[in-house]
Each structure stands twice: as structure tokens, then as C-alpha cells.
Design brief:
Helices cover 29% and strands 26% of the residues. By secondary structure, it is α/β, with parallel strands linked by helices. The chain has a domain of 128 residues. The chain starts with a helix and ends with a strand.
């Protein structure tokens, strides 16, 4: 069952007042509709719960109830995209249940640990809860964006895909991890064991370190079949010393690059990457001038 806040707006009676008042009324109606559906859902299993909702502090208890109900019914896919509306970032964001509260929720799950995919955006979630999920659920895909993670250890043999925006210290020891998308801090990713990693996308500050050092020192580069650089303007405000010699990437089939910088500085290292990939069959590059 799918319903959007626009559907609520279409069904609501004409409203006289400011736009902010109308939005607040629609959000309240939408929240009530979701709560009623979740509470009335009589089936013993729930495959997926997706909530894309503009969070404010008054919604916290309702979202807690939705999450609790989802886990009690053995949810397989959970997505919480709790973005804010407006030009300013709110003081409060939704805090996912801490580890003690999360364990308490699971105590009533009757062993229905079916969670395979988690997508959290604009959600404050602790490293302890993430690591608990990785250890106790058959989690295959994990995506966390628009939030900050301090220190995270990714281990086990189930996870296949990881997407993460920001982390001070990311340790990866995951035998079946195949895809990693990361845009976090420089010198913050450490590969202990990732023999099946074949798809890597790097961006933001991580690119500034990855280009001059990661390509030369990271043995995992030889495993990759797909490599993508997404380099925003702020990542290259200072010059980067690109390597002039690169190791052979014998398995690389696809290379995708988006970069901001002066043309002369942008064109050399993609050519070197192409030369180092003997079976490369797909290459795309988008160059954006800093002068634009």
C-alpha cells in the first residue's frame, strides 16, 4: 500500500491560511494515516516499510511505533527517509532507537530476524546499532546518508552492498561485500578483508586522498570491475598531486568520472587510468570548469 502526502492534500477540504499552516496540517494528517495503517495491519509478516516523511520533533513517538511494529512483523526491507522541509536544517533529527531499546524491541519479534536491506537518510543512528544489525540479521544492503557516523566496523559474510556518506573511521572486513559507495573523510577507510569487492564509487573528500595514494597503495584496486569518481567542487579547491604511474587494473571494465577543475589538470589522470585497464570497455567523463 502506497500513499503520498500529495494524496492527502488532494483529498483534504479547502484550507484557508498560510502555506506553513497548510503544510503542518497535511503532515499531521499524513502521520495519522500511516499510524492507522500500521496499527490495523493484521498480517503476521511485513515485507517492507518505506517512510519518506519530513521529520519534526512531534513525530518522534509515531515513527518509533512504526519501526517497532515493522520489526515485530519480521520486516525484510526498512527505509526511513526523514528529510526536512524548508531552507534551514532543523535542530532535531529522528534518533533511531539506541542499542538497549532496539534489543528490547527485538525481544518481542519471535525470532523473525529477516532484515535484508536498510536505507536510512536524515536519521541519527549509532554505530553500535549498525554493527548489531550486521551481526544478527541477514543484512545484504546498507545505505546511510545525510547523517554522521563516528567509528564503524563492517564485518561478516552477508553484506553485499554498502553506501555511506561520512565516517571518521571505517574498517571493512566483509568477505562478500561487492559494492561500496563512500564519500567521507580523508584517510578514513581501511580494508582488512574484502576479496569480492568489484564496484567502488568514491567522492567528496575521500577522492583527494584516494587519487594520489589509494590507486598506488590499495591492493583492492586490482579486484575492481567498476570504478566511479564523483568529485564535487569543494573537493578540489586545492591542487591534488596525481600519480604519473598506476598499477595495472586487470579486471576493470567500467570507469566513470565526474570532476571539477582546470582542464589541463583534469585530463591527464583519466588517460592514465584508461591505459592501466587492459579490458576496459566502458568509459565516461564529465568535466566541469571551476570558472563556471
Amino acid at each position: 500500500m502506497t500513499k503520498t502526502i500529495n494524496d492527502i492534500a488532494d483529498q483534504s477540504s479547502p484550507f484557508v491560511g498560510s502555506m506553513d499552516d497548510k503544510i503542518d496540517r497535511l503532515k499531521a494528517s499524513f502521520k495519522c494515516w500511516i499510524s492507522n495503517v500500521v496499527q490495523a495491519y493484521a498480517m503476521p509478516r511485513l515485507d517492507e516499510l518505506t517512510v519518506r516523511f519530513p521529520f519534526d520533533f512531534n513525530n518522534r513517538e509515531s515513527i518509533d511505533m512504526w519501526v517497532d511494529c515493522a520489526f515485530k512483523k519480521g520486516v525484510s526491507r526498512l527505509e526511513l527517509a526523514l528529510h526536512y522541509w524548508g531552507k534551514t536544517i532543523p535542530d532535531e533529527i529522528y534518533c533511531f532507537p539506541d542499542l538497549d531499546k532496539f534489543r528490547g524491541m527485538l525481544a518481542n519479534c519471535d525470532g523473525l530476524y529477516n532484515l535484508r536491506e536498510v536505507v536510512l537518510s536524515g536519521v541519527d543512528v549509532s554505530c553500535q546499532v549498525i554493527e548489531f544489525m550486521l551481526a544478527h540479521f541477514p543484512l545484504e544492503r546498507l545505505c546511510i546518508s545525510n547523517t554522521y557516523i563516528d567509528t564503524l566496523s563492517v564485518s561478516g559474510d552477508r553484506l553485499k552492498s554498502l553506501k555511506l556518506d561520512e565516517c571518521d573511521h571505517l574498517m571493512i572486513s566483509s568477505s562478500n561485500l561487492m559494492s561500496l559507495t563512500y564519500a567521507g573523510s580523508e584517510n578514513s577507510v581501511f580494508f582488512e578483508h574484502a576479496p569480492n569487492l568489484s564496484d567502488l564509487s568514491v567522492g567528496e573528500k575521500f577522492c583527494a586522498t584516494f587519487l594520489p595514494t589509494g590507486l598506488l597503495n590499495g591492493g583492492y584496486i586490482s579486484w575492481l570491475k567498476r570504478l566511479e569518481f564523483v568529485m564535487p567542487r569543494k573537493a578540489l579547491r586545492e591542487s591534488v598531486n596525481y600519480p604519473l604511474e598506476l598499477p595495472v587494473t586487470p579486471n576493470l571494465e567500467e570507469l566513470k568520472i565526474e570532476i571539477y577543475g582546470v582542464q589541463d589538470a583534469c585530463c591527464l589522470w583519466p588517460v592514465l587510468l584508461i591505459k592501466s585497464a587492459p579490458i576496459l570497455c566502458k568509459f565516461s567523463v564529465k568535466v566541469n570548469s571551476l570558472l563556471n
